[in-house]
Fold each of these.
Amino acid sequence: MKKPRIDTGQIFSDSVTKVMKDYKEGKPIDKDKVREELINSGMARLMLMQMNRKQEEFVRIKNRFKRTPKRRFLTAGNKLGKTRIGIAEDIAYAMGYRPWLNKDDPDYKISVKVPNQGLIGCETMLESVPGKIEPELRLLIPSYCTLPEDWKNGSQGVLKSVTLRYNFLGEPCGSVINIRSYNQEARTFEGIDYDWEHWDEPPGEDILQAAERGKITTNAPSWFTMTPISGAYIRNRFVTRAFNNGGMDEEIADIRGSAWDNCQDWCRSCNVFIPENDPERIEPGKMRPVNNCPQCGKIMGFVSKGGLEEYFKTIPPEMRESREEGKWLFLSGLVYEIAAETHMYDDFEIPKKWMKVEAVDPHDARPTRWIFGAVSPEDIIINGKPANRIYWFDYLLAEGNVEEIVRQVKVKRATHNYSEPSCVILDAKFGAKTIKTRLDETSWEEELENAGIKNIRLSHSNPGDVALGHKIVKEYLKPHYSVLQGKNFPGMLFARQACRGERGPWEDMTSYQWKQGTEKPEEAFKDFPDTIRYTALEQLTYQEPPKEIDPRVVEFLMEEKKHELQSSGYSPLSWGLRVSA
Ligand SMILES: [Zn+2]
């Protein structure tokens, strides 16, 4: 059968035909010269699309295997262009490459079979599809890639699928982009094995589960473009596990963006204005002239500062954090504000001279939490009093009897090159409570001491200490100036590798929430925050630890001394009474 082929010469104007020819041959294209005509003809917006810094991160992010993670979450405020880049990815996956990148760009080609079946999930068929999905598809899909009959409507008279008859180069394609909405029943999402899935705003958990069933065989990639307003389960099940967000899952990436990441004439991170990019000074239809921030070099966006400010005036105050900054709405209930980019440090070997501290939240029925920290010599002020910056460098979820727990603790200490911390802070309530052991009744404190744990301190437990503890932890988490490093950073930091993991300190600290409408935190995720609160209340100040002396060295020195004294007429009766000259 003869392959259908479009005669590009009939469809395109002369100059566009030349550009297409050059493009096919991989020749450099003077994008500026043809930009206007192409945009006006609606043929190649996809090719000329430029990304802002967050869209770029979303498209290019790689895990440690140098692969695009299977699930990417772009959680951002309004006006970042998240639906736009999501739809651009949809079309790119349908074609097998990203026409807006150069051919020699490592992210130009996409590893996906073509033709394929893709899914766009959106909130409602009657509003989201005609309101945003279809206009974006029509804007970005070049006009020559489809015929009118390739755009199919469903029973509600709304677009339900579009078939790309041709790809960007005018060659046969055949991929189908299917559109479904979250007001359809979950079971209807089963059945088709999609090759990729794009969720514009989070679906209900039942819908995602149904759609995932098909993915088991294809292991299809998916991306989520969403305002972090609904879908708490998305955050708890996926986003907190993202490898770039303190999690362990290399197949999940979390890209979070503020509307200000799409600003064209002001770089918020540098507080640098770019007057040349002020829309008042740009001719209509022309691109902003400065592409990168002159200070940090990051790509600038496409909306003016004035425009963004006006837009955010229309957003109710309680929604601003989500719609402007891309923060999860329900996280206003979080006990601590803590973020991977500010509160995690790249693991390093803790210097021997730093003061070691450990805190314990003992449990009988579930693993005992044991956290390992170092009080550094870096001075900070907490609650108006001197303190020192604390680095949490490891933890244990220890199971078994007390001896077994202590053995695991000692192994952990040895791997970090020390044997005794300056103190071990133990939950006072639980620590002093009697527990049943095989032999008799005792307490955690006694049991731990018997098993060889020294320097135990019971946590503060006076009335009001819990509230005070939260206040002090919050102070530790705030930035404090470091003279040594010449910058501001938190007074408490967590090791990026060693503190992550399921129910580890990082997950607990970032998920710890207030019970709605109360002044008490939820029980879930409270374990490690408790240990950190006990430690914060101690407000430890740095002291150089006593030298740990190797017993073999002591023995050697004793021998030497004995030898020396013997040869100098030492007498045990008079020694030490002599006045040296
Ligand atoms: Zn900058």
Amino acid sequence: MPLYEYHCKECDCDFTLLQPATVNKDETVCSECGSPRVDHKFSTFSSKIQGVSAASKKGPVTLDELPNKDILKLPVPRLRSEL
Ligand SMILES: [Zn+2]
């Protein structure tokens, strides 16, 4: 389950909730004062993923970034009609 960070506009506190991705975030209330005036900031889980990919995306993907370089050493499959 991802972590969701909220900011309460009522009591100005930040809180984090472990919620299923399917939860209606509009119905989340502040864990401190119970106010529904909360801003959904971001999901810790997904922001980490996006942060990594954004940081490493400084240019075109090079061979070193491929997770499995061995795949390029495999013989290219040929069509039977080419033989
Ligand atoms: Zn609050």
